[in-house]
Design brief:
Elements (H helix, E strand, L loop, with lengths): L9 H20 L3 H15 L4 H6 L2 H13 L24
Helix pairs in contact: 1-2, 1-4
Amino acid sequence: MANSSDPLAGDALVKEVCRRIRVARSYWDAHNNAACRGEREKALALYHQLTKEQKDKIPQTLRVWLRYRSEKYFGAHRTPPKAKGRSGKGHNRQPL
């Protein structure tokens, strides 16, 4: 789907939103937060393109999960992810 040149619309858009939410949930269950964040952002971008009737076609469990994770764990009030690299926590400590 990602390589498709045509923008999604109608039932195809609803189906893609559901698929992306499910993928994000699987990443969340696997504790892969970076991948979960990316899929969630893509799902949310597509979700905002839906009409109210289309949003009602998405299963409630997926909608609740998307909103809950979006607000609680990935909202603007949260600290953004750090850049990959060495954190320096406890690696070069001198013994006391």
